[in-house]
UniProtKB/TrEMBL annotation:
Name recorded for this polypeptide: NADPH-dependent FMN reductase
A GO molecular function held by the record: FMN reductase [NAD(P)H] activity
Statement: the UniProt record of this protein carries the keyword Flavoprotein: yes
Alphabetical GO biological process terms: alkanesulfonate catabolic process
Record keywords, A-Z: Flavoprotein, FMN, Oxidoreductase
InterPro entries assigned to the protein according to its UniProt record, in alphabetical order: Flavoprotein-like_sf (IPR029039), FMN_Rdtase-like_dom (IPR005025), NAD(P)H-dep_FMN_reductase (IPR051814), NADPH-dep_FMN_reduc_SsuE (IPR020048)
Superkingdom of origin organism: Bacteria
Record domain NADPH-dependent FMN reductase-like: where: 3-144
Length: 185
């Protein structure tokens, strides 16, 4: 199966965005993919702030992107745009780092006023990096993501179904197993 890099662009350690991505990572792994999580907030600040392309952590992140067949990019939306942290990473990657890749853009936010951030802010930047395919993305309202005291994630039913559908479309684009998709969907 495919190798998938799952990138969280959230600056928060208790991020709903990152938790949602890890939830979707489990679904993709159950479909036979090798999923590698990357939380951009764990990269050294000095490497991002000083645009240090040669910093070992940036070199490693670039190698992960090169190795991946597909990339899931998740970000919280702030002021109708993707996070500055994600922007910092994207700026440090080679111009055509996504060449030949299949990409799934996801976003979370507090209001439906930000729903177009994927198409008008994130998708053009991703497209400029040369991916083979950007699958339909999904915007999830913060209120539809609940984290229990024990850390378990619950996604509101309508949103869970939509996320399962876009995740499964992404998986199929990467050669996922349709029979397994029907059993878990």
């Amino acid at each position: 199966m495919a190798t998938i890099l799952s990138v969280s662009g959230s600056p928060s350690a208790t991020s709903r965005t990152a938790r949602l991505l890890r939830h979707l990572d489990d679904r993709l792994a159950a479909q036979g993919h090798d999923v590698i999580p990357l939380d951009v907030r764990t990269l050294p600040p000095e490497a991002l702030l000083h645009a240090d392309f040669r910093h070992p952590a940036i070199v490693e992140a670039t190698a992960l992107v090169e190795r991946a067949d597909g990339i899931v990019i998740g970000t919280p939306v702030y002021k109708a745009a993707y996070s500055g942290l994600l922007k910092s990473l994207l700026d440090l990657l080679p111009q055509y780092a996504l060449a030949g890749k299949t990409v799934l853009p996801l976003a979370t936010g507090g209001t439906t006023a930000h729903v177009l951030a994927i198409d008008y802010a994130l998708r053009p930047v991703l497209n400029s990096m040369g991916p083979a395919h950007i699958t339909p993305g999904w915007f999830t309202l913060d209120k539809d993501i609940t984290v229990g005291d024990d850390g378990t994630l619950t996604v509101a039913p309508g949103t869970a179904e939509a996320l399962a559908q876009v995740t499964d479309q992404f998986s199929l684009a990467l050669g996922g197993r349709p029979a397994l998709l029907a059993a878990t969907g």
